[in-house]
Amino acid sequence: MELNLRDKRVLVTGGDGGLGSAMAEAFAAEGARVAINYRGEPDIAERMAADFKAVGADALAVEADVTDADGIAAMFGRLDEAWGGIDVLLNNAGIDGKAGKGWEIAVEDWTRVIDVNLKGAFLCAREALRRMVKQRAGVIVSTSSVHELIAWSGYSAYTASKAGLAMLTKTLAQEAAPHGVRVLAIAPGAIRTPINRSVWSEPEGMRDLLTKIPLGRIGEPEDVANMALVLASDLAAYVTGTTIFVDGGMTDYPEFAHGG
Ligand code: NAI
Ligand code: BGC
Is the CB of residue 243 less than 8 Å from the CB of residue 224? Predict the structure, then answer.
């Protein structure tokens, strides 16, 4: 089946992380032009861009902290200069943040998670939509989480940010649909990346995790990247304003497989 993503101009935020790098690789393998956003150290993003170029795909490493509106505007300006705009935004940068019950967590720690995961996604979507609405085409896919639905003790900012991202997605989709632009979210379950290494790298953590996943395995970054490819392509031309769960059944209440 043809995805027809060749030469599409794609920006992946957090493109040097676990899920972001898998998405960047997947789009580059389809012949898309991929801008890899990073914050801080450029090494990984630049190496990825060089690797993509070596196999004939166009690529850029672009710095910006997604909480910084001016930095984001400058990053989109670089895409304008290099490629004349953007076709696909993968709004993926995110942090779990510091764990702490609601009555323990420092307000700066709580707010930082909202700033990166929700405000950051909004700021990038805003720049992308300014361009996509004008060209009457484009797709935004944000990385939400099963925790847009499932409460997670110790992570109230994270769950609130992802639930907020779900409604941000639906509202922007409603606004953008008449202009030919689709806005979606992917909600991964537990995927093997640095964000949750402390869980899956320990036998006890992995054992507990597997009790929560009906399909019986941890997700791999490619499981999420494959869905991003499909959603960004015209195979999903009739899909907008919703979250697609890629979670091995985590949101299917495995506790209810027996009894009830
Ligand atoms: P990761 O820690 O490997 O990647 C996170 C990426 O976000 C890194 O590239 C990091 O540099 C970037 N980032 C963080 N703050 C940033 C900022 N202020 N500006 C720009 N970039 C920033 O973790 P992973 O798993 O790849 O996370 C990616 C997304 O997937 C996050 O939004 C996370 O919430 C979400 N997610 C991950 C799941 C998992 O099980 N791995 C499950 C559900 C959602
Ligand atoms: C979190 C991971 C966690 C997964 C499943 C994700 O949103 O970022 O740390 O393993 O949800 O709970």
Answer: no
User: What values do phi and psi take at 244, rounded to 5?
Assistant: -105, 125
- How much is the pTM? 0.98
- The closest ligand to the CA of 39 turns out to be 1
Tokens of 109: 């720690």
9-189+219-247 CATH, one of 3.40.50.720, 3.30.9.10, 3.30.2130.30, 3.30.450.30 = 3.40.50.720
Query: Is residue 253 among the annotated active site residues?
Result: no
The tens digit of pLDDT for each residue in 145-173 reads 999 999 999 999 999 999 999 999 999 99
Q: CA 72, CA 62: separation in Å to the nearest integer? A: 10
| Regions of the chain where pLDDT drops below 50 | none
Rounded to whole angstroms, the Cα distance separating 89 from 123 reads 12
Distance of alpha carbon 107 from alpha carbon 112, whole angstroms? 8
For ligand 1, the distance from its centroid to the CA atom of residue 258, given in whole angstroms, is: 34
